[in-house]
Design brief:
The complex is a heterodimer of chains A (169) and B (184).
Chain A: H1 22-51, H2 55-64, H3 66-78, E1 84-89, E2 93-100, H4 102-109, H5 120-130, E3 135-142, E4 145-152
Antiparallel strand pairs in A: 1-2, 2-4, 3-4
Chain B: H1 7-39, H2 41-50, H3 52-66, E1 69-74, E2 78-85, H4 87-95, H5 105-117, E3 120-126, E4 132-138, E5 168-174, E6 181-183
Antiparallel strand pairs in B: 1-2, 2-4, 3-4, 3-5, 5-6
Helix pairs in contact in B: 1-2, 1-5, 2-3
The chains are: A alpha+beta (169), B alpha+beta (184).
Chain lengths: 169, 184
């Protein structure tokens, strides 16, 4: 039987939550691309993934605005095992308070070596999703806990400082 | 964030991204280095150390966790899987996701080198519709693949009325993802 999936997720599985061991492959994929083609290629991978694979998410955010952003993240983290995340919405932004990142938690629990710039993927992927919807994201923290703010893209907003994103370990 | 819920979708997308970047050699290297040697290092260790028992431990757990509908048949000489509903390919088919030319190749892409390192060979077929079968034997065992129904009886995926597809790939005593023949 197919589990009921919120319409705010672009792709539906038959299980209500994903299999956490797949975080091993996500981490290994980052390491592989960086080892073979460097950090620039890894950033391009994240940006291309956001623009292409997650294009349905961009479209939904364009149509629904912040309400669509908040709905997406609530549904997203409900399907990620072991996550603890608060999603709040105001007229200015959608804010994610990630109290426990499911990926970092699972990788640590299994003694996996985490790619140091693992947490940067949240900025680069999410920025690529948000851009076509006229939004931008700022990430602060990482390595298991972080804050992600989705805002309208304006010229006066300072760019993301990558030093605000913690090294993962 | 890149999640695990829809992992099979962005995993399949990644194959084509790598293919565009570095061609088939890079995709093969990804399956071996990133998946076999890194992500699935726990599977490698289990199967290298315990052989058929390790296969039972690894696939018994992971296929259940992924929600597969499958049958396992194990004797002293062979470990067989009949996959009736592949959760991974099923996800792609249900969601209409197809970037890479043959997603199913990834299994032989990482399992093949793993099995080779552990001293086994594989007979395998997949029909690109979410069904496949695998038989792992020790490298020194010259026995051919079983006839349909001979090893797993009524659970043999080849006995399904929908097994035949226009595009079925066949591997014989192989450990290499490119060592396949199309059968009809």
């Amino acid at each position: 039987m197919v589990a009921p999936i919120p319409a705010s997720l672009p792709y539906a599985d038959t299980k209500p939550v994903g299999h956490a061991d797949f975080y091993f492959a996500v981490n290994a994929t980052f390491r592989f691309i960086q080892r073979h083609h460097g950090e620039g290629a890894l950033i391009k991978y994240w940006q291309d993934l956001g623009h292409s694979y997650y294009q349905p998410v961009s479209k939904r955010w364009s149509e629904l605005g912040f309400a669509g952003v908040a709905d997406y993240w609530r549904a997203f983290f409900a399907a990620e095992p072991g996550s603890e995340v608060e999603v709040s919405e105001s007229p200015e932004e959608v804010r994610l308070e990630v109290k426990r990142c499911p990926a970092i938690r699972h990788l640590r629990e299994h003694g996996r070596e985490i790619v140091p710039n693992f947490c940067q993927h949240c900025f680069f992927v999410n920025e690529a999703i948000a851009g076509p919807a006229g939004m931008t994201v700022r990430v602060c923290g990482g390595n298991g806990r972080c804050t992600q703010r989705f805002m309208k893209a304006t010229a006066d907003l300072p760019p993301q400082n990558l030093e605000d994103i913690a090294t993962a370990s | 964030m890149i999640g695990c819920y829809d992992f099979c979708g962005h995993y399949e997308w990644t194959f084509e991204w790598l293919n565009q970047l570095g061609g088939h050699a890079l995709v093969r290297a990804y399956w071996d280095e990133a998946i076999h040697q890194d992500s699935q290092s726990h599977a490698s260790m289990l199967i290298r150390e315990k052989g058929f028992e390790g296969m039972k431990e690894y696939w018994g757990t992971t296929l259940a966790d992924e929600g597969a509908l499958y049958e396992r048949t194990v004797t002293e000489d062979v470990f067989r899987i009949d996959m009736h509903e592949c959760p991974s390919k099923g996800f792609l088919l249900r969601n209409g996701l197809e970037q890479y030319r043959d997603y199913c190749d990834h299994c032989m892409g990482w399992i093949g080198p793993l099995i080779k390192d552990a001293g086994f060979v594989v007979d395998h077929e997949h029909n690109h519709c979410g069904q496949c079968w695998w038989e792992m034997r020790r490298n020194a065992d010259p026995a051919p693949a079983s006839e349909p129904g001979a090893l797993s009886g009524q659970h043999d995926v080849r006995l399904r009325p929908d097994w035949k597809s226009p595009h079925t790939d066949h591997y014989e005593r192989s450990t290499d993802p490119d060592d396949k023949k199309a059968v009809s």
